[in-house]
Amino acid sequence: MKSGRKKLKNYSFVLPAVILLIVITIFPLVYSLTLSFFHWDLRRPLGWRFAGFSNYAKALFSDHRFHRSLITTGIIGVSAVLLEFVLGLGLALLLSRKLVGKRILTTLLVMPVMISPVVAALMWRMLYHEKYGAINAIVRLLGFGSGPSWLGSPNLAPFSVVLVDAWQWTPLFMMILLAGLQSIPVEPHESALVDGASRPQVFWHITLPMLKLSIIAALLIRLVDVIKLFDTVFILTSGGPGSSTETVSYYVYLVGFRFFRVGYAASLSYLLLAIVVVIALGFLRILRRREVG
Amino acid sequence: MFSRRALLKIENIAVYVILVMAVSLAVFPIAWTVSTSFKSVGEYYTYPPVWIPKNPTIANYTYIISTAGLDYLRNSLIIASLNLLLVLGVSIPAAYGIARFRVGGENLSFWILSQRMLPPVATIIPFFLLFRGFQLFGRQITLLDKHLGLILVYCTFNIAFAVWLLIGFFESFPAEIEEAAVIDGCSRIGAVLRVVIPVIAPGIVVTGLFCFIFSWNEFLFALILTREAAKTVTLQLSQFRTPTKILWGEMSALSLITIIPILVIVVFIQRYLVKGLAFGAVKG
After folding, report:
1. What kind and span of H or E run contains A49?
2. Partner residue facing A179 (CB), from B125, B234, B282
3. What ipTM did this prediction achieve?
4. Best interface-test mutation with A: which of B9, B15, B19, B226 has the largest number of A CBs within 10 A?
5. How far lies B38's CA from each of A118, B24, B32, B251, B261, in Å?
6. How near does any CA of chain A get to the CA of B41, in Å?
7. The pTM is what?
8. Could you give the CA distance from residue B218 to residue A228 in angstroms, rounded to a whole number?
9. A147-198 confidence digits (pLDDT tens)
10. Which of residues 87-116 of B touch A (CB under 8 A)?
């Protein structure tokens, strides 16, 4: 009896947080799931009309704009994360050496991470401006002609979005991998070098395998985030030109809040949620393995 | 051939050159914004662009202060601060319960963490529809364009984050010391308040600062759920345009006002950045 009461008492610690989370996430998600099986156009007075699976069927089989937004998200997301990983790993390796002024260098390098993505995108929108922007001014100074239209060309715009994302999030990879590098013992490196291994060999066969967990964790954290890419696209390109930078989040926003087809938008958001869940589960499994190990 | 020492020296110089280039890239957009914020309209719409304003002006800053700029900063401040208090209020006991008594086992803590991954577009549609008006105990309640609306909504990502980070801090506090306090006649709550909380206070402050930054920087929810009365600074930043042009100078000035407090905070919490942003997935 006493242990039962004690257990109840322990549960009361988590109760406020759990109740609040149920009200603000579970309840809206259930509402949205219900809505995803209905047609509801906010501009029309018809209200809810039962749709069965037709919203999902439309999204999966006939909405090419949705499919293209998935591909765009994939291309922008994967290129950005890979670029951030490579640059971040490089910087982490450089910073793991003994350097004078390392602290100040690191502080300056991590600044972009905490800036609002809206502010970051606005800054870059100024820099990208075809005529008045700093980037094309540099291009002209170097003598490469008048410089491209960074945000106005459908081929270049996705790349410009990737660059902004990389500017903001490369330091995150750098920090995570630097922390990983600093927790690796130095002895295996030294003995391998004494045994005549070259430095690239040590890097591939000792450093990289030991960093594996940090690398996977960083990749998954960023992948989950980049799938939700919205702010940068909203500010930089509004999904354009054409729909060349239209990500899934941006498309769901358009369907729900520009076209006001909230039932259909709810079903799209559930498909996005499914993708995030798959990636997040991978992430949680790795975390869990770490907790056990 | 170079001697080994000379090679090492060359290598070190190369490392510094690369790092200084990387720092320049990281800082350049911020520096450009600083420069633009002191330019007059004539100077930020010139071809070729001016690097450093020839006639620096503080007109953009006075414009922000004389228009509603400060109101939006105040809205962001109110929303981020009250959200942080609410989040810490429920997260500190939750994290303590999970860290000390393993309440709910692994499933509960992972369920809480998973809230952090939720795509905002998945909850924004129901939030918008509900906030337009709903009945509660017979009263019509509207949360659209209200501070309270965003204060609640920002809990969706901040509670998960705060609980997760705080669990780590509570676990780092040895349970024996707490037990000793209880044996010495402290109540459980008394032991937590007088012994545990003071020791992990820095961790609580760091957690709170992170939550503040996340709310301060948020955009999508503010875009959909606020209009004018509760409009946040990030939303205002996205709206600095007249039908014909963007007000770059004014926008730059407000951007800087927005990021300066954040950059100051970052210097203080830098030691915890990895832990905070990587959910403790990696030892920082």
Report:
1. strand A49-50
2. B282
3. 0.89
4. B19
5. 21, 21, 10, 11, 19
6. 12
7. 0.90
8. 13
9. 889 999 999 999 999 999 999 999 999 998 988 888 888 787 788 888 888 8
10. 89-91, 93-94, 96-98, 101, 103-104, 106, 108, 110, 112-115
Inform me whether the C-beta atom of residue B2 falls under 8 Å from chain A C-beta atoms: no
pLDDT value, residue B26: 95
Based on the domain organization, do B180 and B145 belong to the same domain?
yes
User: pLDDT tens digits for A272-281?
Assistant: 999 988 887 8
Q: Which residue has the tokens 């941006």?
A: A250
Distance from CA of A172 to the nearest CA of B (A): 8
Residues of B in contact with A28 (CB under 8 A): 123, 126-127, 130
Q: Are residues B49 and B74 in the same domain?
A: no
Domain span holding position B23 = 1-67+247-284
Q: How many domains does chain B have?
A: 2
Of B131, B121, B122, B167, residue with least CA distance to B152:
B131
| Residue in chain A nearest B33 by alpha carbon | A123
Domains and CATH numbers, chain A: 15-292 (1.10.3720.10)
- Residues of B in Cβ contact (< 8 Å) with A17: 90-91, 93-94, 112, 159, 163
Whether residue B2 has pLDDT greater than 80: no
User: In Å, how far are A6, B72, B254, B266 from B260, measured between CA atoms?
Assistant: 47, 16, 10, 10
* B34 Cβ under 8 Å from any chain A Cβ: no
A120 vs B contacts (CB less than 8 Å): 29
Q: Same structural domain for residues B189 and B61?
A: no
Distance linking the first and last C-alpha atoms of chain A: 35
**C-beta of residue A108 within 8 angstroms of C-beta of residue B20:** no
Cβ-contact A50, A40 below 8 angstroms: no
What per-residue confidence (pLDDT) applies to A1? 47
Residues B176 and B253 reside in one and the same domain: no
Rounded Cα distance between B127 and B150, Å, is 10
Instruction: Please tell me if residue A20 touches chain B, with a CB cutoff of 8 Å.
Output: yes
